[in-house]
Amino acid sequence: MGILPELVKRTADFGCAAVALVLVFPVMLVAAALIALCMGRPVVFVQQRPGRNGECFALFKFRSMTGTTTRAGEVLPDEQRLTSLGKFLRSTSIDELPSLFNVLRGDMSLVGPRPLLVEYLPLYSQEQAARHDVRPGITGWAQVNGRNALNWEEKFAHDIWYVRNRSLALDLKILGMTVLKVLRRDGISAQGRATMSRFEGSNGSDRTAVGRDNGA
Q1: Please, which residues have CB within 8 angstroms of residue 119's CB and are 6 or more apart in sequence?
Q2: Helix, strand, coil: what percent of the chain each, to 5?
Q3: Residue 214 and residue 198: Cα distance in Å, rounded?
Q4: Residue 113, phi then psi, degrees to nearest 5
Q5: How far apart are CA 105 and CA 52, in angstroms?
Q6: Whole-model pTM?
Q7: Distance between alpha carbon 19 and the CA centroid of its chain, in Å?
Q8: Can you tell me the distance from the alpha carbon of 76 to that of 54, in angstroms, rounded to the nearest whole number?
Q9: CA nearest 18: which of 102, 90, 93?
């Protein structure tokens, strides 16, 4: 994708995000009120994530988990902290709506590889690191081809394929497929897990994330 298409993509991202925020603002207000009532504050989850070229930015999402801890002060596993409201927000992708502000700011695009945890950066292979050659997205090729039902290797393969084959036409296709995925609520969780397992490198084993949003 050359300079002109990149400029068109950025302009389209900004315009679409601005319009989308106006349209979904009532939904965001209701979601914020329910989160405050059922889970307390803060309503918005903020976490540093690596963006284009690995540069970090503050990612905004609606909170979907409680901060419940054990008597020893240890954060409980995700399965025990993910509330019924949180499950609904995730299954409908309402939890992603605050990320539209990231698109307006230029941190993210509507379409691109999902921004993962900062601590994953040194674990990527050279090929996997290519996912940071573009802005991360609210949705992406991996999300419409399995989302959290995919393992890490499959996710990264889809991400790299997108980076190498990205185009405005492909972005439109992914956005259309995303709408269908959200309506069907496909691939919300990994098999047997509330959230995606942690990435420990291509030669490492995955374990369930505890005490943080894992970027799925």
Answers
A1: none
A2: 50, 15, 35
A3: 7
A4: -60, 140
A5: 13
A6: 0.83
A7: 20
A8: 30
A9: 102
How many Cα atoms occupy the beta-carbon half-sphere of 140 within 13 Å?
Answer: 28
Per the structure block, which two tokens stand in for 33?
A: 């009120």
Structural tokens at position 37: 């009532």
Using DSSP, state whether 54 is helix, strand or coil.
Answer: helix
Locate 29 and state its tokens.
């207000």
The string of DSSP codes covering 52-107 is GGG-EEEEEEE--B---B-TTSPBPBHHHHB-HHHHHHHHTTGGGTTHHHHHHHTS
**Within 10 Å of residue 76's Cβ, how many Cβ atoms?**
16
pLDDT value of position 201: 83
Q: Which residues are CB-neighbours of 128 under 8 A, at least 6 positions away?
A: 156, 159, 160, 202
CB atoms within 10 A of CB 13: 23
Residue with tokens 């802005």: 135
Residues of the chain with pLDDT under 50: 190, 192, 204-212, 214-216
